[in-house]
Amino acid sequence: MKRIRPEEPCWCGSGKNYGECHLEFDKKLKMYKNKHIKVPDRNMIKTPAQVAAIKESAKINIAVLDHVAENIGPGITTQEIDDMVYKKTTEMGGIPAPLNYEGFPKSVCTSINEVVCHGIPSEDRKLLDGDIVNVDCSTILDGYFSDSSRMFEIGDVSEERKRLVRVAKECMELGLERVKPWGFLGDVADAVQTHAVKNGYQVVRTIGGHGVGIAFHEEPFVSYVIRKGTGMLMAPGLMFTIEPMINTGTHAVFTDPKDNWTVYTKDRKPSAQWEVQVLVTDEGYEVISY
Ligand code: MF3
Ligand code: CO
After folding, report:
1. 3 Cβ contact list (under 8 Å, min separation 6)
2. Which among 216, 240, 278 is the best mutation to test ligand 1's pocket, defined by most ligand atoms within 8 Å of the CB?
3. Contact at 8 Å (CB) between 65 and 150?
4. How is the chain split into domains, by residue range?
5. Quick one: pLDDT at residue 2?
6. Quick one: fold of 39-289?
7. Which atom in ligand 1 lies closest to the alpha carbon of residue 106?
8. How far is the CA of 17 from the centre of ligand 1 (A)?
9. What is the pLDDT of residue 162?
10. Can you tell me which atom of ligand 1 is nearest the CA of 210?
11. Cα atoms in the Cβ-side hemisphere of radius 13 Å centred on 48
12. How far is the CA of 190 from the centre of ligand 2 (A)?
């Protein structure tokens, strides 16, 4: 990395001198790095201008999820959800990030019951009374990415499924509360994992959260099965998703060989997921999209 003198402008583009901006930050990161702690690269640290642009993208993402929340219900097909997402996103000037992403054919992921994630909307699948469904929205605006998801209970849902949806939400929220500057991603994982196991559930291991903002999926990978005090250091400016998939039964999953996308629980028992996009700040955290 090119050395910046303290009187030169900071690399973050704040307009302030490096000496009164990120100099101490860089020293601190170097100190951790020397102790063999995993630290984010500079390109993972969002600048104030990037954060502002990502928040504009997130405004659309949140509005789209709100729109889905108002219109979802029994009898609606997942294709109709896809249509809603495409229409609302583009009306607001955004692009649905999943559309054509690595060949994904639709604008949103709709994952029902035993589908863990990456469910493909279809005209053939109506939402039925008793279903639980995750709607995972991601938006691109001016090249900046936002990503979050919510669960919806369709009609009269069993107590068992309601409990799964509630605990999955609590897992995400407890993880979120652990986000603090100079903490570790393992602290988030620990909160998620502990709460899930306490409730008799298992957390999916092979799929997790991710850095997001400049690209759809950036480093770091956000696992929920690493230990407290391990994993990447949460430096201010790091932005990522917390999106644990909580399974009623086994944590094991498999991908549908027919479409290469849809992920199911191995035992076909229900799974639930809530996703939040979060920024680590100097004081704590800021929710970017939810
Ligand atoms: N939104 C999902 C995530 O949380 C990504 C879905 S990729 C897609 O990472 F192409 F399947 F939409
Ligand atoms: Co995501």
Report:
1. none
2. 216
3. yes
4. 39-289
5. 73
6. Creatine Amidinohydrolase (3.90.230)
7. 12
8. 38
9. 98
10. 9
11. 10
12. 19
